[in-house]
Specification:
The two termini are 37 Å apart. The chain is an alpha/beta fold. The chain has 26 helices and 26 strands.
């Protein structure tokens, strides 16, 4: 294994165990931890010394409130008033906060205001249980978005495995039972004949398939066991946020990530109420998916988003547009797939009229028969996740496209209804965001696979590349408007970790490598019958295998990801109607041996991995490091990306002791630690933003910028194309005034000054971070 000696932290970097600072109000960086019963608060507390040494300032915890027993994610909240006992309870959470504080760190919580679980057993969600027992007269009825009229006075509960399951009544316990499920009996109904008793309840237990057309409560996307919560009601807000606000007031928590803010009736009003409750010192970011040309509403009192918009720019600027277009053409020719635009439009219509038929029916009934077609077409035509009550409403392009199908008069009628009826506007917007999420993220992104690195939340797979000019414009605007917004590369929701995407994106520099034989099934090849002969899934399989490479448990992990991809795409099989014969063929698409990139693309992948890391940690915003991604992390879609991680404590100690990094994983760790420590110890370095432009024959392969506080970042773009063209040659970069030293790695004989040759600056690594010597 060749020794790489360019990115080891040097003696003059921030020490591994610095004097304990006070965590800043705005994080220097965050580190995301996925808490589970197998990785509770105590395990997080044990990791605090390592994470402090790594250089982060805040630990970002996945949801910590009481959830469905055994939940591996915590987004299925059952009790807002208690910290989850399976994680150690509130005592252990406070102990974690104290341990973090001792090391100069603080906590950020992921909170879930939009929905609660419809759990089994149902009594775990006491507010919902009381609504089912007492109906709309329950004091908890205001908690949930239930359309009692649409359900004929009953809440549809699509929880039965079969349509005709038998019921029994336990009058003494006040329960209705169906198998192992229990439901509360409405007072005074226990003695009725069974048919009358069922009709007299405030709910109707139903076969799970009925949710598609008959559900009468708002849910999270298409997940019927997550019921929408009406946090727009001040009393509901107070009840569901009391524990979180207590933790903020007590100093246990210093920041909040708001999950799925688009699901709320009025995100802006919610955020204003939250800001008033937590004060100005609490860092708040929202999980908000922005289209490429869309901005965050400037009136929202938040620091910004969780960072998917940054992910798209970092990935895109390291993608070759010509190669991406060539891959798209080859993909369509070999699979018969339609264009991206047609794929997205078809998926939207399918999801709206199928998976979201109940939500669509509610809106159409509200709008009336004359305007119902326009409701449908406006939702399908929308290019953004949602508009907001009191906002500008659908844009001109959306109105034009919808009018072409539904008629101008009908569209104008819906627009007028959106303007005068806030309740209709809110439900329209909530349905819009569910539609975009399910039709894009969970269907079209799995159907359109020329370059899988581009099918990530917030991306535009049809035009995946981002120019250098676009990248600089985005960063400059972010520094002006949202300097404390989050940035991410990998999360618990990304379909592929950043390092897998970096490898896949390298294919855009040599599209032929995608279809070259050897090491796995190519497009259109494989076992006869079922999935083995599906050219679309074969393409996904080969590209996924190239992205994953040689990793532990490669075969089972790849097979699980391909099964999920096939079901989400919904072309030949699905979650609700699986085709067993088709799915049996998926195993034939998993190569027996690891599929590796050719050597020239392995080097391109290395440049991408380090380039993405450098850009992420030096661009404007607050970077988040996902657990384990400080070193090389190759992970596929959940649950693969939520696997337990081993923190590289010994490797970091070795690098700090002066060892040179020998692998890409060690290079990435060294670079990450050096930059995180700088962000924490010298935050002034990361202020302002100024693009730097290279000059010479290879200038287009250089992406460089200065943070006027005293930092310069230089990354190599499209390194394989650069090598094909003859390398850097005489290309130079003019540094800002001053003497500049590397922020990591061995020191040069003399500081860099003035105009420097990129061939010299980047001789041993495809990236450079420089700090002004003074």
């Amino acid at each position: 294994m060749s020794q790489r000696n360019s990115i080891s932290p040097s003696e003059s970097d921030v020490p591994a165990t610095p004097d304990v600072p006070t965590a800043p109000a705005v994080p220097a960086s965050t580190y995301r931890l996925q808490l589970t019963p197998a990785f509770p608060f105590a395990a997080a507390r044990a990791a605090v010394p390592y994470l402090a040494s790594l250089g982060v300032s805040h630990l970002h915890l996945s949801p910590v409130l009481e959830a469905v027993p055994g939940s591996a994610h915590g987004y299925d909240v059952t009790d807002h008033g208690r910290v989850r006992e399976e994680l150690g309870g509130e005592r252990e959470l406070r102990a974690l906060a104290a341990a973090a504080r001792e090391r100069g760190l603080a906590l950020v919580l992921d909170i879930v205001p939009n929905h609660m679980a419809v759990p089994s057993p149902l009594r775990l969600n006491r507010p919902l249980w009381e609504v089912l027992r007492e109906g709309p007269g329950s004091p908890y009825a205001r908690w949930f978005d239930i359309d009692w009229e649409a359900g004929g006075g009953q809440v549809l509960l699509p929880v039965l495995a079969e349509p005709d399951e038998p019921f029994t009544v336990d009058a003494g316990a006040g329960l209705l039972r169906c198998g192992d499920r229990e439901f509360p009996l409405r007072e005074g109904t226990a003695g009725l004949p069974l048919a009358e008793l069922l009709a007299a309840q405030w709910y109707r237990p139903a076969w799970w398939r009925e949710a598609r057309t008959s559900l009468n409560y708002r849910r999270f996307f298409t997940i019927s066991d997550l019921i929408g919560v009406r946090v727009e009601d001040p009393e509901v807000f107070a009840a569901t946020h009391a524990k979180v606000l207590e933790l903020v007031r007590d100093g246990v928590v210093a920041g909040l990530r708001i999950d799925h803010v688009d699901g709320l009736a009025d995100p802006g009003e919610y955020l204003r109420r939250l800001r008033s409750a937590v004060g100005d010192g609490c860092w708040v970011v929202v999980e908000k998916i922005l289209a490429r040309e869309e901005g965050l509403p400037p009136s929202w009192p938040v620091a910004g988003t969780t960072g998917y918009d940054a992910l798209h720019r970092v990935d895109g600027v390291l993608t070759d547009p010509a190669g991406a277009a060539e891959l798209a053409l080859t993909y369509q020719e070999s699979t018969g797939s339609p264009s991206w635009e047609e794929t997205a439009s078809t998926a939207a219509r399918e999801v709206l009229t199928g998976d979201l038929a109940a939500e669509l029916s509610t809106l159409e009934r509200w709008a009336g028969p004359e305007r119902a077609p326009a409701v449908r077409e406006l939702l399908i035509a929308s290019p953004v996740y949602r508009t907001y009550p009191g906002g500008p409403g659908p844009d001109a392009r959306t109105l034009e496209r919808a009018a072409a199908r539904a008629g101008t008069a009908a569209v104008d009628g819906v627009r007028e209804l959106l303007e005068r009826d806030p309740a209709f506007g809110a439900r329209f917007a909530q349905t819009s965001t569910a539609l975009r999420a399910k039709s894009l993220e969970d269907r079209a992104f799995y159907r359109w696979a020329p370059l899988l690195s581009a099918t990530e939340v917030g991306g535009e797979p049809g035009t995946p590349a981002v120019t250098v000019e676009e990248f600089h414009a985005y960063c400059a605007e972010r520094e002006r408007q949202w300097p404390a917004s989050g940035t991410v590369l990998s999360t618990h929701d990304t379909k592929r970790s950043a390092d897998v995407r970096a490898r896949v994106a390298a294919l855009s520099q040599d599209p032929e490598a995608m279809v070259k034989p050897g090491g796995g099934a190519g497009p259109g090849r494989g076992a006869s019958g079922a999935a083995g002969s599906d050219p679309q899934l074969a393409w996904v399989a080969r590209q996924s295998a190239l992205g994953l490479g040689d990793v532990p448990e490669r075969g089972p992990r790849l097979a699980a990801a391909l099964l999920k991809a096939a079901r989400e795409a919904g072309l030949r099989t699905s979650w609700t109607d699986p085709d067993d014969a088709y799915e049996a063929g998926i195993a034939h698409l998993v190569p027996r041996e690891p599929v590796e990139l050719p050597p020239h693309l392995e080097e391109a992948a290395r440049a991408n991995v380090l380039g993405m890391t450098l850009l992420h940690l030096t661009m404007p915003g607050v970077p988040e490091v996902y657990q384990g991604s400080e070193t090389e992390l190759r992970a596929l879609v959940d649950p693969d990306n939520r696997r337990p991680v081993e923190f590289p404590r010994r490797t970091l100690d070795s690098l700090d002791a002066g060892a040179a990094p020998l692998t890409l994983a060690e290079e990435k760790l060294a670079l990450t630690a050096a930059l995180l420590r700088l962000r924490r110890s010298r935050p002034a370095l990361f202020r302002g933003y100024a693009p730097l432009t290279a000059r010479g024959p290879a200038s287009g392969h250089c992406l460089a910028f200065a943070r006027p506080g005293g930092l310069v970042a230089v990354a190599t773009r499209l390194s394989h194309r650069l090598a094909q063209a003859g390398g850097w040659r005489d290309t130079t970069l003019s540094l800002p005034p001053g003497r500049w030293l590397p922020a990591h790695g061995p020191r040069p004989a003399a500081p860099h000054e003035g105009e420097v040759r990129l061939a010299r600056l980047l001789a041993s690594a495809p990236v450079a971070a420089l700090v002004r010597a003074d």
